[in-house]
Amino acid sequence: MTTIHIAGVAMTKFGPNLGATVKSLTAEAVAACLADAGVTPDAVQAAYFSNTLQGLLEGQLSIPGQIALRNAGVEGVPIVNVENACASGSTALWLACQHLRSGAADIVLAVGVEKMVFDGEAQRATVVRAFEGGMDVSAGDEALNDLLRLGAGVDGRSGDGHRTRFMDIYAALCRAHMARFGTTQRQLAIVAAKNHDHSVHNEKCHFRKAMTVDEVLASRPLGYPLTVAMCSPLSDGAAAVLLCTDAGLKKLQGQAPSILIKACELTSATTRDFADFEAHVARRAALTAYDRAGLGPDDIDVAEVHDAAAFGEIFMTELLGFCAMGDGGPLAERGETRIGGRIPVNPSGGLESKGHPIGATGLGQIYELTQQLRGTAGARQVSGARTALQENSGGLLGIEEGAAVVTILQRQY
Description:
The chain is an alpha/beta fold and about 425 residues long. It has helices at about 20-35, 55-60, 65-70, 90-100, 120-130, 140-150, 165-180, 185-200, 215-220, 245-250, 280-295, 310-320, 330-335, 350-355, 360-375, and strands at about 5-10, 45-50, 80, 105-115, 235-245, 260-270, 300-305, 385-395, 405-410. A 9-stranded mixed β-sheet has the order 3-2-4-5-1-6-9-8-7, sandwiched between helices.
């Protein structure tokens, strides 16, 4: 089997950056990633470029990667444009891994970028509308109504202000989980407060303000049980990862410890019953990743999971096998997912704090976990971290995400 190394990683600060463009964010991330690996752009033999919104917002269609990467000094090599909802960045990583495994190249770049924050009202409205396209547009109301029925009887205060349909979907999924397992709004707030605490130590986060559980609960309500502080903001940002085979590693001059990709698995949604959690798209990706890596949940030292809302972290800790189904809320209450706990989750601050520039999000998770495995995460370092897991999902098809990627990384000693 081909050994795949992470040779270089980088991410920009996530958050509002009105002066930035897709080109400038891409150039910043790529330059830092290549510098981390100790190479120049001509070392890149192929590239996968992740972005979801530029076509809608700027009309830049067809070859956005070729245009943005030329500005970063990468041209003349195979460049593939990738869009796969919120899992786009991780899908670019998955494709880069396939490229290396095929033997077609020894050094491949995955880069993701999103420009989501604008002054103009029309562009802001377009960003919000874009989330509607992350599901079957011919059956959006039907999908939401199906989820609402699953959580019938779980009620609480909802806000009257702006929110996206995806936040209504997250809220409906959460109420279904509450109805089945007794998960509480306070448990969601514990997860969000934990992630806001972690963010204080991450200079690349959109938000870096510690919050108490009560402050999270008191923030503006969205669809019950979610509040604004439990949900990810719209952000600008980019991230890049340079991958290589053993042969490619010999060509590089970087001095950082080698991090191996033990598994990177992409799955898509299936038609299933809500209660068939073993068939959940992320659960299937995780089981395949564990099998490929020859590892299990107990071998994971640190994880970054897709928490566009705090419920996502609770649900994913269950689906990834860190606890039993229904125990994700109590797991957080016991402090087991904090830095210093049994299985630290989202030491970066998670999407609630770090931000969610869609095309860059998954690669930003890989950046964080690489720092953890290198032992360079500073005050948010998970002691002794050697094996890490990333989960990144996106879109909605029926009652689950349309795509999910689970990646397992391990430090090579």
